[in-house]
Task: structure prediction
Amino acid sequence: MRIAAIAAALTLFTGSAAAEPLLNDELGVSFPNSGACTSSIQFNQFQPLSDRHLTDFSHRMLCAAGTGITFFVYESTSEGGPYSLIWTGGGTHGATSLNDSPAVGLNMLDGNWYLVGAQTAATPSSCTCYGSTDPSLTYETMSWGNMTGAGQTSGALSTTFTPSVSALVFNQIVDTTTAIFAPTAVLATPPTADEGDPTVVLDGSISSDIDGAVVGWSFDCDDSDGVTVSFTGSDSDTCTYLDDDGTYTATLTVGDNTGNTDQTTATVTITNLPPTATAACSIGTCIIDEGDSLDFICSAVDPSATDVASMSYTWDFGDGPVAGGTQTLVFTDDELLLAECVADDGDGGTDDDEIEVLVNNVAPTISLTGPNTGAIGDTLSFDAVAAEPGDDTLTWALASGAPPTMTLTPSGNVATIEWLLTADDELASPIAFSVEVTDDDGGFDSGTHVVSVTLTGGDDDDSAGDDDDATDDDDATDDDDATDDDDSAIGDDDDSAISDDDDDDDSAGDDDDSAPCFDVFYEDGDGDGQGGTIEQVADSVAEFSDTPGTDGWTYGSYPAFTSGAFTPLTWNGSSSQYEGPEGFATPFLDASGGHPGVDTFDWAVRAWTSDIDGTIQIDMTFWDRDTSCGDGASVRVIKNGFPEFEYLNIPSAAFNSTLELPIAVGDDVDFIIDPKFDTGCDDTQFEVVISELLDEVVDCSAPDGYADNTLDCDDTDPTIALAAPEVCDGLDNDCDGNIDDACADPIPGAVVITEIMKNPFAVTDNVGEYFELHNPGAYAINLADWVIFDDGSDSHTIVGDVYVLGGGYVTMCRVDDPAQNGGLTCAYEYTGSVQMGNGDDEVVLGYLTADPADEIARVVYTDTTFPDPNGESINLSPLFLNEVDNDNGANWCRASSIFGAGDSGTPGDPNDPC
Result:
């Protein structure tokens, strides 16, 4: 069967019968490393034994002198075939010479072709067959002489052959009209895309055909969709997948110019992207009063609409996660907490966002009710009710100066006042008394009630002043006796300065005298017309210093629970802390906390010495900075050696507490970090702010230095008050409870360039150039450390504070001298390091760097698309004061208002209309 097949191939070569393709599985004769060629058709079967293709299998026939080689026969089973390929090799050979190579270079065939036979013109014994399985002998370097064997010679193949249909018909025969080589389908690097934009391009442009050309491509985006192959003339196609993560199998089928095809696949991966979570409060600022409820809304955006629809949310308010994107909480006590929301897209993508929630303490408010009149001997009863929105514990007290016969009985948020009226009360009538209530967070209120006490009333039979008793007018002390109306200094209508109803000049309770006033006025220490109730006098963090005694602060240690001496700690500059001699340099105190001793029970003590007389409020923030071991950090407050406050086992999250103390100049207040018993991990945050409670007076009108309100949050600075402009300076300038409102890193458009004087006329450019900035927001912006630059080499870093108030304008000048610059009033001089071209140039303002990524404001002007005046500024229309519209030269015009030395512009003021 095999000989017949080869014979058929030989017949085809001679132009006789049609060829029968040769199949490798029909060839069973092995090709030894060496041996005699035993027949005129020698089968050389490699593949079943060694799986060696022409890419790594060399062969040769060593024939005797004068032997002629007729042809070789090769076969492919994978190139759309099988096919037989026949070469002739004419001529004879010299003694022991290697047979000629075929007319074409066999080494250029691809690895799917096999040598299956050869025929010689001489007897079989004239030739010896050799083979090699050396994988290093690939077709790029194959030669006929690279094998071992006695008496062989070498001669490298000299002709490079690229198979093609036209080449195969020269001096050789192909046994079929079908093209020899099928095309090779190749997809470029398997594409990937992100959900939200799940569009990829399948690229088949690098597919090839070795004997012709690829002329058709068919793309199937997903092998599961049953798309029928349909060839197109485009070597790429665009596939759009579901808007969600997943994997798909894409298929490319290519066809060549003779109808052969090839197919390949690639995995397309659509990658999940995490969501972006946003935590928000229903009222925006997340600042509420205790007792109020607050809605928390967790939302998220995601590139995949599918993920958005199935997004799940949780909130954590410090006590574990709670499922649900909207939560409503009622806060019953003042606190500062971080609320975290987490968005989960269900595909492994999550994101979280945090917001700070400030719950303000609300002072209780008193409602005091009871009678307004009474007579000597009566017992009056009053009810004081305190409205307290939180869960604070209330402390009740009668204000100083209350009548001595008045008692107060507290019960929760209610107090009962009992008052036995006496003659002394009548003498002082009308009497105003006050009841005070304080919550355990320092919130305070007082209620005042006025009572008029009269002589009449009481028991007629028992009263010492009763007309019928032993002391009445008819008895020994009556009008006729020594103590009667004419003689008694006490009861005489004519003589008594105390009880004379008609004496307008002397009696404090005289009917004609004015009733006392009970309006409350508050100390206005800075003269801004707004009173305050509290004034900060010390800050343990802000005033931390390497010099003991600065601002009244000293740093040391005490032996715990004893009255041992205060031992100063030593300053360590490299660690920026005070240290002791014990292990780990303890006790130590840094700016915001510290650690007690680890070798002994030594307290770490931050001491403050008062320089004021009055009452102070101490606001403390503390938490355990290391919960990894130990029995819990603790803190204490001691004044002049007496304990005033302690908190054992403080929490690991920030905790706030407030304490009020009377204080005198020279008093020492110690803020102590307590080791408790296990000292190893007692690293403690302990921050303290001390404020003085300001004076209040009751009068008919405000005395000098007092106001009728408590709107001031800093009674030492007249620029800090309610409705003052908020400036990004670390202070609560507008007294709204928030420091540096909206002072996050500025974004493009936070300030806008609204006016440019590029070519002054009244003065020279080098002194008269300026540009103007406008802040369209509500809060002031500080330009300190911002950079003025252009797209060339101009650059200047702003030194010092330059504030642009909300809604305001500032002028940035090249020279800040009105006598030189044409009459400009400047907010800042940027000197000659930045110059503006009269034709084309840029004015750019960057946040902290001259990097385009940090640009806040930019104008690129030209002398063709923008106005190009001389002696007039170019002026952005007031209708377009934003960072987008100021890029359009059509929105700019020449300034018309004249200033200073005669040039036109509105530096520092709103612009002229265009």
